[in-house]
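pinned: reference chain
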Amino acid sequence: MSDDTGPRPPSTSPAPGPRPEEIRFFGTSWVDHGDGYVLRRAAVGVGALLAAVAGCLVLRFAYQGLAIADVGAFVNVLVVVMFAVCSAFAFSRTWSGFTQRPDPERQASLRGFLTIGFVGVLAAHALRCLTEAPGEKLRRHEYETARDQYERRTTRRAGNPAKKATGKKPAGKKKA
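pinned: its structure tokens
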């Protein structure tokens, strides 16, 4: 055993109060924009853009397969319209999800549309990374609101509240 009475390392227990919510690929670096935040944002944006381009190439190969199979103009147009509509819908749902929390039940029921429109989801992430981490604005607002509420709950009153309200001394016992 050691009788070390020297300074102890700082406590690793978390500070009291609300914790920021982690964002995928960013963790909590979005709070203070530290820990490689800018590089992560660039990497996520470029990665989403590259994945969208790769997805478009796969869709093109699928369309060429339909053309080779000679399924007809109606099916070709139907497939193109389906992917275009689903991608536009997925883009708008994803974009709006960056500023407000989506309803979990509705999100689950739309999972098929979002899967078919994966190019729109990837495009939304790539575009959002130009300005901030996807979902950062929403989480920052929620975190700051939670911090303000926590501060208001934990702030202690100082002095007599009756004095502050009227500006007079409270009526009571007089000292002799």
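why pinned: The helical segments are 37-69, 73-97, 104-109, 111-116, 118-128, 136-154, 161-166. The chain has a mean pLDDT of 86.
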